[in-house]
């Protein structure tokens, strides 16, 4: 459940895209992670507040993960070859440990330090999205929106981060243009 203090216009995307969406608005740039307390708000909205420390080391790790993800998403949008080094550096700080317990197979995330947990989880989430379909990781089609989403629509044709916001803005602009001709 999203933290009520979270000011972002799009909340609840998969963790990697939710981290990317901590920056929003091309016309009036906003950055939740640059605001005092913003990292804690993001951890809370992402459901990680009880697992990850809200400290400078954790913030630095998450910022590194966000930059790595932004570079990969930008490369995909520009149809360039991705440069995975930065994301691999984040992933190098953790792993999934498989074990067998009395109740069956189990998995546990292990990281170098607690500060890397949120960053590692976001990087790992991105790999999961790529496995599901890299073409479903999309940028909002509105020209002033910089948000990203994972298209779960059946036909894969979702265009807007939010139909209620960006989709309606685009419809209104088309209508206005048509009426004023």
Commentary on this structure:
This protein has 181 residues and is α+β, with helices and mostly antiparallel strands. The chain has a single domain, classed as Jann2411-like domain (Jann2411-like fold). It has six helices and six strands; from the N terminus they run H-E-E-H-H-H-E-E-H-E-E-H. It has helices at 15-20, 38-45, 56-77, 85-91, 117-132, 163-179, and strands at 23-24, 30-31, 94-101, 104-111, 137-139, 148-150. The strands form three sheets. Strands 1-2 form a two-stranded antiparallel ribbon. The protein is globular, with a radius of gyration of 18 Å. It starts with 14 loop residues before the first helix and ends with a helix. The mean pLDDT is 92.
What is the third-level CATH name, the topology? Jann2411-like fold
Note the gap between the termini: 45 Å
What is the helix content?
Answer: 40-55%
The fraction of residues in strands falls at: 5-15%
Order of the strands making up the biggest sheet = 1-2
Number of beta strands = 6
Order of helices and strands: HEEHHHEEHEEH
- What sort of overall outline do the alpha carbons produce when their principal axes are compared? globular
What is the overall pLDDT average? 92
Largest sheet: 2 strands, antiparallel
Tell me the CATH superfamily: Jann2411-like domain
- The total tally of domains equals 1
Could you name the CATH class? Mainly Alpha
The parts where pLDDT drops under 50 for at least 5 residues are: none
Protein structure class: alpha+beta
Gyration radius, to the nearest Å?
A: 18 Å
Reported CATH architecture: Orthogonal Bundle
How many helix segments?
6
């Amino acid at each position: 459940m999203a933290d009520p203090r979270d000011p972002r216009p799009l909340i609840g995307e998969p963790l990697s895209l939710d981290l990317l969406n901590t920056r929003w608005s091309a016309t009036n740039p906003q950055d939740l992670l640059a605001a005092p307390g913003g990292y804690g708000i993001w951890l809370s909205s992402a459901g990680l507040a009880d697992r990850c420390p809200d400290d400078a080391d954790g913030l630095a790790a998450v910022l590194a993960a966000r930059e790595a993800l932004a570079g990969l998403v930008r490369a995909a949008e520009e149809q360039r070859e991705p440069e995975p080094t930065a994301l691999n550096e984040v992933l190098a700080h953790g792993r999934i440990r498989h074990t067998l317990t009395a109740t069956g197979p189990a998995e546990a995330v292990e990281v170098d330090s607690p500060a890397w947990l949120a960053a590692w989880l976001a990087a790992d989430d991105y790999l999961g999205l790529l496995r599901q379909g890299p073409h479903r990781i999309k940028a909002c089609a509105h020209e002033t929106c910089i948000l990203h989403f994972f298209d779960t629509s059946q036909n894969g044709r979702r265009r807007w981060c939010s139909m209620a916001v960006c989709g309606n803005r685009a419809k209104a602009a088309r209508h206005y243009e048509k009426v004023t001709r």
